[in-house]
Amino acid sequence: MIAVDVGGTFTDVVAWRDGKILTTKVSTDYTEVAGPVLEGAQLLGVEGSDVFNHASTHGLNAVITRKLPKIGFLTTEGHRDILDMGRVWRPTEAILDPHWRRSFGDASRPIVDRYLRRGIRERLTSDGSVLFELDEEQARAELEVLRRCDVTGVAICLINAYVNPVHEIRLRELVTEVLGDVPCSISSEVSPLAKEYARASTTVIDTLMKIIYTKYSARLGEGLTELGFTGQLNFADCAATLVPASRAMDLPFRIVFSGPAAGTIACAHFGDLIGETDLLCADVGGTSCDISVVTGGAPFVNTSFELEHDLVVNALANDISSIGAGGGSIVAIGQSGEILVGPDSARAQPGPACYGRGGTVPTTTDTCLMIGIIDPEGFAGGELDLDIAASERAFEGLDTDFSLAQRVRYAYEMAVNNMAEGVFNVAIKNGVDPRDYSLVAFGAAGPMLLPAVLDTVHCKQVIVPPNPGLFSAIGLLAADQVFTVNRSAYLLLSPDKAPSIDAVFTEMETQLREQVGDTTAVTFLRSMDAHLVGQSWDTPFVPVPDGVIDADAVATMVTSFHDTYESRSGNRFEAMPVEGVTFRIRAVVETSKIEFPRVPVRGADEPLLPVRTTTLRFLGDIDGGGDGAQEAHVYERSTLRAGDVLPGPTIIDEGLSTTHVGAGQQATVGEYGELIIRRK
């Protein structure tokens, strides 16, 4: 099996063959994204592989940077500004800011410019009946405007179309007649759910992803075939579950956030292997720290997510919080003279000052290089020599009266504190006690920085898994293939509504069986999103029984709702009626998964010896004007054996990552080579 995670800086490639994990990294090229993917596949040998699993931030980065194709948006007349208004929410920090503007609003960087958003004369009522027929002559005139504007795709979201798609289907036919064979998404197929704005934004993202990914997918498939690949090409969705490439291109909005989600699946799979099922997962890269929670071996999944504040996508997604804290986070001086780290990043270009690519400001990577945690001659597997003198010049250039030792020490402490605060906030948001959870540190910079949060967050321990720099890609080899269908239908959960509810589930299950095809290893999981009558917000993922939905099954659904509601809110209102809003079925097809090889125990004639000793500066006492030096042993991770105990301060090097075990801590090597870091 082989998996690829296309990131903003590197394309990570992992293969599992003959019981061994093979890895490589290739620089991402956004002028030809498929090129590095195929290069990595060729390096590891894709011929003979059964599956090729793919995740990417390509579409996500296109949205963030607004390097997007020009598309049109058609909606019911009078609603063309729905994309600009959003849900009229502000982030907490902007509630009192009169200058705040939504990132995708017309006043800033709209996803679709207002002149390309056209109103169509038609109207359906909430029960799906036709109030005003579709005005085809007016619709053709609006499409002519889009044709003259050279749009390359069209998104269609009409009011109440999730109940009755008749007008959207006809409008799509008119799009083909006037504009030709351009990508066109309709909300009744993309996201047949209530709440107009989220349905509209999801449909727009789907159209954009069709344009971005369709040609890319075809190019990738052709390239893999040329390399001798004859297996199944899968794309990961926002919950890091796998979808065959052909199906993924039908609704590509589901794959826009696939890269970060794969790391959570990798943590859940590896945690189950070592008996740790309650995890805080932190993926620290160059720009951000992506944090998620696994409880009882299962990631926390949301029914929607935001690409930017209030830019909603209706897709099942692992709940991931990102903060601007990574190896490239810039060290700066605040207005009060304090040391600040992030959220701005030096990114890959120009990068940290030590990269020698033109960067002149210090970053967290420069901080760790100055301390001595990073080996200047062994960085990135020895492919990049770092310039420590450039890092020192960058720190000396800060406008502050702090000494050099103070600048580096405080920059390190602020970087660690930012990550500790992020991890703690995610734990509190999800209602978990971090003392009961292990913190999984992965990403290229995670093992270097996260062990230091032990004394702040007070989590049980820090786990550094094998190959932490490519751990998200490994997660793609631990995922199941999942097909999902959902429908919105406001139905009171009462015995007389049982036939209507059963009809919804029967229709969805029939659709899923057509998608899955002939396979016996499939499990159908039913759930619903529901609320107490009169509530605006839904309680998601309420279990629904299998089989025919009759009066008894409806009673079970009502009880399940109250149980789920109570577990989430602490309250129970059994006297109030319950209304189902969205009904969902997931078809889970189990797949072969990666197996981590065990690490042998150290023999009596094989002593544990460091490869060298190094001096870590600025971490000890610097108050007396010294440089706070600490002596630390350095080990190569490939030489460690199960059961080895490494007291801190210690540095553990491997090709694409460095682990720092601080003073007062110790690392124990587990049976699969994982590093378990605890306080002494």
TrEMBL record:
GO terms for biological process: glutathione metabolic process. One of its GO terms (cellular component) is cytosol. Residues 199-482 form the Hydantoinase A/oxoprolinase domain. GO terms for molecular function: 5-oxoprolinase (ATP-hydrolyzing) activity. Pfam families: Hydant_A_N, Hydantoinase_A. Residues 2-178 form the Hydantoinase/oxoprolinase N-terminal domain. This is 5-oxoprolinase.
